[in-house]
Amino acid sequence: MNETEDVFRQKPLRLNYKRTFLIGSAFFSITLLWYVYNMQCPLILAKLFASNFGPGNYKTIIGVIMAMDNVAAIFMLPIFGKMSDKTNSKRGKRMPFIIIGMFASAVIFPFIILSYLWNSLAGVIVSMGLVIFFMMMYRAPSVALMPDCTPKPLRAKANGIINFVGYIGGIFGGILLMLTPFIFKSVIDTNTGEQTYFDPSTGSINLIWPFVITSILMLVALAILYFNIHEKKIETEMHDDMQRGEKQSETEADLSNSGKLTKQDKINLILIICAEFFWFMGFNGVNTFWSTYCSENLNSSGYSLPSTLLIIFSLITFIPAGMLVSKIGRKLTIVIGIIICTACFATGMFFDTLTIAAYIVFALVGVGWAMINVASFPMIVEFSTQKTIGTYTSIYYMASMVAQSVTPILIGMLMDATNNGAFFPYATSCFGAALIVFLFVKNKRKTTANTPQTTI
């Protein structure tokens, strides 16, 4: 019996569900902040540009500003990912970055809305930049925590749990934005008839609360991680299981020995990254300008509900999708998810009002997006060793951030040129391109005398 067969004969690897849920607290904080950030910042910037420079079409420049976080990530994620791989502190490899980054971003985040209240465009942009810096400091290390302590065969299932916990943060963000006008009395601008954040006559501050509550919840998430996740202890406890997981890797090369990828492994990695680039182009384009499109083309201010439905149905799908991967494989799970998203965005081209059909479409997008996300990150870190998980996590996020740097600018220009008509066709085209590229990824199958086939 060879070594690989012996690995498969041993007791099955089991996922530590409690620890995986706790690790998800970091992703909770990330998703919560980005939801509020992406929904509110374009509107804040549009009002400040109009206030400072007069009425006009500012979508392109707003797209440039909203792409700032993604441009920064291209340079910063590899730095912090590799730094965390090489860090050896009492708190472990990842926690020092998580502690500093999460705390600082939580403290700075409310200054975005405060700067708006002070009518300071420069203050808003500087505050956004500082939040982005500290978010990038802890983003890759916090996501790398999961594969750090999860054997390779279990990472899709664990990633489903991580995303499940993370998207609860998005739901909290959606609820905050929907309920704030009801809980904290809003003010109507007498000149424009629009809801405003600040009433100069009374000095009352209204919609600052989503920002403040977001920061408080981030600090709670940080406390959960700080008191429950002890990397050194986990590393010792999981050592044998991690070694067994390496032997069951779905790469052609045995990375536990050489760490070097074969030619086919490299081709698969490149194809996955390219497909990821396209599906993030489409999804982030919708995410960035959905509130604008909904207000201007569908004549509705109810943009939060469809976005929240997307998050809820993603949440419902994450854990079942992780289980589905073990049945049909990562590739087929992602292909189904891409097809669902492509069909839904194509359907969106026919909407002229915000109807029940639109809510159904966004719910289905949530299902497809969950299937893509559950399986794609484990496919990337499958090519890593224990010493390079942070680096490959950065590769995954770099691809998404390059896409998200380009797409707000590109879709902003197209929407300006077509009176927003390019919104859904753009997303449909991006997901279609992702599907074409991803179909070229070759399925890697492994068999032993005592185990069924597994697929990448």
Which terms would index this structure?
456 residues, mainly alpha, Growth Hormone, Chain: A, two-stranded antiparallel sheet, 16 helices, 74% helix, disordered C terminus
Please explain how this structure is put together.
The protein has a single domain, classed as Growth Hormone, Chain: A. 74% of the residues lie in helices and 3% in strands. The protein contains 16 helices and 6 strands. The chain has helices at 3-9, 17-53, 59-66, 68-86, 95-108, 110-117, 121-148, 155-183, 209-228, 231-247, 263-297, 304-328, 330-348, 356-381, 389-418, 423-438; strands at 187-188, 195-196, 198-199, 204-205, 446-448, 451-454. It has a two-stranded antiparallel sheet with strand order 1-2. 49% of the residues are buried.
Reconstruct the topology from this structure:
Layout: H1 3-9, H2 17-53, H3 59-66, H4 68-86, H5 95-108, H6 110-117, H7 121-148, H8 155-183, E1 187-188, E2 195-196, E3 198-199, E4 204-205, H9 209-228, H10 231-247, H11 263-297, H12 304-328, H13 330-348, H14 356-381, H15 389-418, H16 423-438, E5 446-448, E6 451-454
Antiparallel strand pairs: 1-2, 3-4, 5-6
Helix pairs in contact: 2-3, 2-7, 2-8, 2-9, 2-11, 3-15, 4-7, 4-15, 5-7, 5-9, 6-7, 7-15, 8-9, 8-12, 8-14, 11-15, 11-16, 12-13, 12-14, 13-14, 13-16
